[in-house]
Structures are given as structure tokens and as C-alpha cells.
UniProtKB/TrEMBL annotation:
InterPro entries: DNA-bd_HTH_TetR-type_CS, Homeodomain-like_sf, HTH-type_TetR-like_transc_reg, HTH_TetR. It comes from the Bacteria. The lineage of its organism: Bacteria, Pseudomonadati, Pseudomonadota, Alphaproteobacteria, Sphingomonadales. PROSITE patterns: HTH_TETR_1, HTH_TETR_2. This is TetR family transcriptional regulator. Keywords: DNA-binding. Residues 25-85 form the HTH tetR-type domain. Residues 48-67 bind DNA. It holds the Pfam family TetR_N. One of its GO terms (molecular function) is transcription cis-regulatory region binding. PANTHER family: HTH-TYPE TRANSCRIPTIONAL REGULATOR PKSA, HTH-TYPE TRANSCRIPTIONAL REGULATOR RUTR.
């Protein structure tokens, strides 16, 4: 394994058990909500476990039952956001795939809007998305998540577009996913372009990318 490869590997941390009891699950979710709010307030560099504990009214040992350190908190935030966004896309696939490719193409804007709404409703959602780009230690969460939804869409579109080689189609879908998320992130930062225009244009880019060269 080369040094370059080693640097791309996510760091290993002490394993923390995911809580199974309702009260413990609620506590963990509350800590994540507070961490998301603080991330939006103070940013990646300044947020700390002590700050989260103070806002939540818990001791550091109580937090460490759920998270090994600050980066584990951020990783959990990113994973939770990605999972919630992915669930929306998978539901969208279930709704429109049975109706054919035209229904999927015509309703790309729908899934973009749903994903944007989910991100906005997530405490610190827009900032969590930025952290997944800014931190090399967290990039694997975003990449693995985007590959997961790419693979899910490939299984649907491969049957609808059998003349396109699977590897070519995978590449197109992967770019579609990246374009969609880039548009959503830009919308949270750029107020000079109306959100409706962003959704409409992003949907057209996605359609063009998927059907490139199609009559």
C-alpha cells in the first residue's frame, strides 16, 4: 500500500456501541441535533465536545458513551444527513420507476426539492454538507453515500436504457448525483438566484447528463 493510498483511508477510532434503548437513542439524537446547531453557529474549527456538553447540559463522560471524540460526532452528523437524504431518493425511485423513464425524467425536480427540504430541516444541515467536503477525514461518508444512490439508480436505469454500457451509465448517474448535490449546496449559499430557478435548471442538467446522445 502506497503512502498516498494510506492517506485516503478513513482513520480508525475506538468503537462506540449504537444505543438500542429508546431513552438512549433519544439522548444520542438530541446530542446530534445540538451539535448540528453549534456547527452552524461556530463552524468546524471551533466546535468542541465541551461546547456540545455545555449546550446539552450533560457531562463529557455522558457524551463519550455515544461518541469517541469531536470527529466521531461530525461523522455521525454526516451519516445521519446522508441516510435521510438517501431514503428520500429511494422512495422517489419506488414511486416513479414503475411508471417508466419519462416519469422519472419529468420528476427530477421533485426529488431535488424533497432533498433540499430535508437538508433545511436538519439542524445545521447546510453546514454538515459543507463539512463533508471540507474535511478529508469525513469525505468517505459523502463519497460512499453518493455511490450507494448511484448504484441504486443504475439498477433501474440499466433496464430502461439497455443499449448504454453499464459502466458508461454508472458514470453518467454518478455525475447526476454530484450535480444535484452541488446545486443544493449552491442554493444554500447564493441568494441571487431564486431557488425555483436552481431546481429547474439542475433538473435539466440531470436530464441532459443521463440522456446524452439520445434522440
Amino acid at each position: 500500500m502506497t503512502k498516498a493510498t494510506e492517506k485516503r483511508q478513513p482513520p480508525k477510532r475506538k468503537s462506540i456501541m449504537v444505543p438500542k434503548q429508546a431513552r438512549a437513542i433519544q439522548t444520542r439524537e438530541r446530542l446530534l441535533d445540538i451539535a448540528g446547531e453549534l456547527l452552524a453557529e461556530v463552524g468546524l474549527e471551533d466546535i468542541s465536545t465541551n461546547m456540545i456538553c455545555a449546550r446539552a447540559g450533560v457531562s463529557p463522560p455522558a457524551l463519550y458513551r455515544y461518541f469517541a471524540d469531536k470527529h466521531a460526532v461530525l461523522e455521525a452528523l454526516g451519516t445521519r444527513l446522508m441516510e435521510r437524504q438517501n431514503a428520500l431518493l429511494l422512495c422517489w425511485l419506488e414511486r416513479h420507476a414503475p411508471l417508466g423513464i419519462q416519469s422519472m425524467i419529468d420528476n427530477v425536480e421533485e426529488v431535488l426539492r424533497e432533498t433540499a427540504e430535508a437538508t433545511i430541516s436538519e439542524p445545521g444541515g447546510a453546514w454538515i454538507a459543507r463539512v463533508l467536503h471540507a474535511s478529508p477525514r469525513l469525505a468517505h461518508i459523502r463519497i460512499e453515500s453518493h455511490r450507494l444512490v448511484t448504484n441504486a439508480q443504475l439498477e433501474v436505469f440499466a433496464d430502461m436504457l439497455p443499449h448504454i454500457p453499464r459502466e458508461t451509465l454508472w458514470g453518467r448517474i454518478r455525475m447526476m448525483v454530484e450535480f444535484g448535490y452541488a446545486a443544493l449546496e449552491m442554493m444554500s449559499e447564493e441568494d441571487r438566484i431564486p431557488s425555483d430557478e436552481v431546481f429547474a435548471k439542475a433538473a435539466r442538467v440531470v436530464k441532459f447528463t443521463l440522456l446524452e446522445g439520445e434522440a
